[in-house]
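DM from R.C. (forwarded with permission)

"hey, sorry to bug you on a friday — could you get me a structure for this? deadline for the figure draft is monday and I only need the backbone to look sensible"
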Amino acid sequence: MTKPKRHPFRTLFAFCFLLTFAAGVIGYASGWINFKHEEKKTTIEIETSEIKDAAEEAVETGKQLIDKSGEKLNELTTDSAQEREITEPKDAGHTEATNSDASEEPDTSVPPNF
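My reply, with the result:
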């Protein structure tokens, strides 16, 4: 059984075509692209100033969203750290060694009766 032959340029062309078509549909729906048909000519008008304004507004909205997300993340991490300080004892996770020599391994042998 052989694999089907792939056509990378055909796929690339189809992707570019669909991307251009989608951009045109979105532009037309947004009012950025207008088609005018007169008796002897057809014109396509692209409102670049409206597109630029919309792009700047989208960038500003994105910046605000990132700032709000950063503030919320800082707030959550600060609250979480404070909760851990309140709920965990100061020596949580630390065991006291009975020997003063910290390099010795603790005795983990099993008692003979076991």
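R.C.: lifesaver. The chain is about 55% helix and 10% strand.
me: no worries. The chain has a mean pLDDT of 80.
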